[in-house]
Amino acid sequence: MAEPIKVVADIIQSELQLKPDQVLVYNQKFDIPPDDRLYVSLSVLGSRTFGSTTRWEADPVSNELIETQRVNRQEMFSALIYSRSSAARIRNWEIPAALVSTLSQQLQEKHSIKIAQCPVSMADVSEVEGTARLNKYALTFNVLSAYHKKKPTQFFDTFAEPAVITNP
Question: So what's the pLDDT on residue 131?
């Protein structure tokens, strides 16, 4: 299973027809180039676990006991879209459109995630940088993710006799 934030990055890059250097996962070393291209930076703002289970089953081939751990989470993502030109202001609507595209639906199904149909918020967070204005918009949206892991575990079918304590 691919990391959900990287799946979202692939969706945005493809749907907005951006080059790989224009879509970043937060906290990568990156300085905004002095060009007029559009850039998107993705980050995880937080998450909430709403389901966690462990199950055991015998492997039919090896007869080993297999432990399966599953966790379901809601993760809040932020997409920061920015440009030195008017591209971020003109194209910011394309991020929510990309998240509900056919490609998005296919990748969500493939990677066991569900991206919310509507963003939680979109805010203009533009700022003045020196003498130029950097057009910047922050879009917040939720992603439901399902994680699982399988591993062999020990099977206990015999137990030591408990120590019997008697009073003298």
Answer: 62
In a domain, 161, yes or no: no
| DSSP-assigned states of every residue in 89-153 | HHHTTHHHHHHTSHHHHHHHHHTTEEE-SS-SEEEE--EEETTEEEEEEEEEEEEEEEEEEEEEE
Q: Domain containing 115: what range?
A: 4-153
Q: Is the pLDDT of residue 118 over 70?
A: yes
Its pTM stands at 0.81
Rg (CA), the chain: 24
Q: How many domains does the chain have?
A: 1
Q: Which of 28, 126, 31 is nearest to 81 (CA)?
A: 126
* Within a domain: 164: no
Separation between Cα atoms, residue 53 and residue 166, nearest integer Å: 41
